[in-house]
């Protein structure tokens, strides 16, 4: 028997706790996010030479961020010890420049998506928590748009003066003329997050949203920071990367297990490489989940329904809703 696909309006009142966003949410904003991987994009565009490709093979990873961080650390050690090593320096510059080029090719500018940000901000406002598995700036730009509005609501990412405050639950408190807030987290990191030479983790900010993407890429280019995001790799590789970051590990261990009653999943394929996210959410004890569906995809509904049956308690209710419903994500 086919699963019923609801409109968002039919179920929205029952789902206000947490929104989890996958890559399909970004694709709904801009089709350029419909790519296999950053590394594959770089290879197909002839950006990666064979020598640097061998680094990915040696470390058994597809993760650009990890390879860049490894060679960046190696060059910094060599500089500190005054060891001349042109080959390592050249590898670092090549990986860095390939990542910058790949992000520039794939990621839209702010002005190209600005008209969709009001709808996204209005949708996110309906949740206490927003969890984005995407490295791109869509959610952050929507946050900034929402915080510029005079609607007595605020989005908070729990960073204070560019540093993450691990007492994150205190940010739920509202004050002054604010009536409600949504907390935003990135379990796989984000372009706005970075590491410095001694592994301090920071949020990169900008005077305006229009300059944010370019400001981030300029900081990478200068060698001031390396990015903090996990965009690719197997489940085990992603878990290892998460464990290496204080911010990512805190979100993974504390935030993902803190959801109260309901979860909305938008644009997430729930692939094998993201099973660790599902495992953590299952520990939160939520009792209902709603998944977005495109084009009445019953095969997806069947697979997801079985995953929930296998990972959550048997009382957990599973619903499906049309991803293109009015007032849902980018849909006005």
From TrEMBL:
Pfam families given in the database record: DUF4917 (PF16263)
Classification via InterPro entries: DUF4917
Protein name: DUF4917 domain-containing protein
Organism: Idiomarina fontislapidosi
């Amino acid at each position: 028997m086919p699963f019923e696909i609801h409109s968002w309006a039919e179920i929205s009142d029952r789902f206000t706790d947490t929104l989890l966003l996958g890559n399909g949410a970004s694709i709904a904003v801009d089709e350029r996010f419909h790519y296999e991987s950053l590394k594959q994009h770089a290879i197909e565009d002839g950006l990666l030479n064979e020598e640097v490709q061998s680094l990915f093979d040696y470390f058994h990873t597809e993760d650009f961020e990890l390879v860049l961080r490894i060679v960046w650390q190696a060059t910094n050690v060599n500089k500190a010890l005054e060891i001349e090593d042109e080959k390592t320096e050249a590898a670092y510059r090549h990986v860095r420049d390939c990542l910058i080029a790949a992000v520039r090719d794939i990621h839209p500018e702010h002005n190209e998506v600005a008209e969709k940000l009001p709808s996204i901000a209005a949708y996110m406002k309906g949740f206490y928590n927003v969890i984005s598995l995407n490295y791109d700036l869509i959610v952050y730009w929507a946050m900034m748009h929402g915080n510029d509005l005079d609607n007595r609501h605020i989005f908070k990412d729990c960073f204070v003066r560019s540093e993450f405050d691990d007492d994150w639950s205190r940010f739920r408190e509202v004050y002054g003329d604010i009536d409600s807030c949504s907390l935003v987290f990135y379990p796989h990191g984000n372009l706005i997050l970075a590491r410095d030479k001694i592994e301090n983790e920071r949020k990169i900010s900008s005077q305006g949203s229009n300059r944010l993407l370019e400001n981030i890429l300029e900081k990478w280019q200068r060698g001031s920071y390396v990015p903090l995001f996990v965009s690719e790799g197997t489940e085990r590789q992603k878990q290892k990367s998460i464990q290496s970051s204080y911010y990512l590990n805190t979100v993974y261990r504390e935030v993902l297990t803190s959801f109260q009653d309901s979860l909305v999943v938008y644009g997430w394929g729930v692939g094998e490489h993201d099973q660790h996210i599902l495992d953590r959410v299952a520990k939160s004890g939520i009792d209902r989940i709603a998944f977005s569906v495109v084009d009445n995809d019953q095969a997806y509904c069947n697979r997801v329904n079985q995953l929930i049956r296998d990972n959550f308690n048997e009382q957990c209710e599973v619903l499906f809703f049309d991803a293109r419903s009015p007032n849902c994500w980018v849909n006005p």
